[in-house]
Design goal:
Distance between the termini: 27 Å
Number of helices: 11
Helix content: 40-55%
Oligomer: single chain
Radius of gyration: 19 Å
Number of strands: 11
Shape: globular
Order of helices and strands: HHEHEHEEHEHEHEEHHEHEHE
Strand content: 15-25%
């Protein structure tokens, strides 16, 4: 895990002590995206990155972006045509800020329609200073259609390491095992092929009423420009609680069965025994092969 975290040094070298805007912070309840967000903030702390403006996907103050030299686009698995809200934002930023260095943090690329891929790639390729960080080999090849500046890099959630001491990692001797069954219920879900028969849960089941209240406060306050920079800090504090709760929940189990990439990554950061299933288009398997095939406590199931 040390080596994966250290891969992010290449990103710090690319930023090169310049002023940064961080865009598309996840203000929703996908805990995987929140783990990426908190890992990105940990990266900023590690390398003393000067982030002068943070924003989610709406009510962006474009004048504040002008004061930065580098624009960082949040990473994850939503680069493509499955999640148009975030893709449209990225394409808008590419059009508006041709004079800035723009870096997309580690992504998996997936387009259902090749025509959409070609159209998007043509737009990004017009930008002379766009840098694309991607987290699996298939995405490396696709990224070359968008820019010559491609960096192969693990997910930003790895910057949360260390969450445990080395002595806490490994197969538990607790019998019978306590199995966590994390199952997607969104557009990337697969038909159930699991070897266990147990009710599943998804990230939304970890969300509390307090989280929902904080989310609603954010939505109302973010509409007022004077509050926007303050309210993103409040959301940051709330996401700390969500991550803490998620870690504690995972630690109540000895084995993790999951088809969610960040269920897999969080379980690995916690040294758990893992049974990995794929999502609808091979994202999990590709990431496993790229970065975690040497993790000793995992079984990768074939879909």
């Amino acid at each position: 895990m040390d080596s994966l975290k250290n891969e992010h040094k290449k990103l710090a070298e690319l930023i090169n002590n310049r002023k940064v805007t961080y865009l598309d912070i996840p203000v929703h309840f996908n805990v995987g995206d929140i783990l990426i967000y908190k890992g990105t903030e940990a990266f900023f702390d590690t390398y003393d990155i000067d982030v002068i403006y943070r924003c989610a996907h709406e009510n962006i103050e474009y004048k504040k972006i002008e004061n930065s030299e580098v624009i960082l686009l949040h990473g994850g698995g939503n680069f493509g045509d499955l999640y148009s809200l975030h893709q449209n934002l990225r394409e808008d930023i590419i059009r508006k800020f041709k004079h800035k260095t723009i870096i997309c943090l580690p992504q998996t690329i997936h387009f259902e329609d090749s025509a959409n891929l070609a159209k998007s790639a043509a737009l990004f390729k017009e930008h002379q200073d766009f840098h694309f960080c991607v987290r699996d080999i298939l995405s490396v090849e696709l990224a070359k259609e968008f820019t010559e500046n491609v960096l192969f890099m693990p997910d930003m959630a790895h910057h949360l390491h260390p969450l445990i001491d080395k002595t806490e990692s490994g197969i538990s001797n607790v019998f019978p095992p306590k199995i966590l069954n994390l199952v997607r219920v969104d557009a990337e879900k697969q038909p159930n092929t699991r070897s266990i028969v147990k009710k599943g849960f998804d990230w939304k089941n970890l969300i509390s009423r307090e989280d929902e209240f904080a989310f609603n406060v954010y939505l109302k306050m973010n509409k007022v420009p004077w509050f926007s920079s303050r309210v993103i800090k409040l959301w940051g504090y709330q996401t700390e609680n969500i991550v803490f709760r998620s870690i504690n929940y995972f630690n109540a189990f000895t084995v993790v069965h999951t088809d969610r990439l960040h269920g897999f990554i969080l379980a690995a950061l916690l040294g758990k025994e893992i049974c990995l299933y794929d999502n609808s288009y091979g994202k999990n398997t590709n990431y496993y092969k790229a970065w975690l095939k040497d993790y000793p406590f995992i079984t990768a199931e074939q879909s």
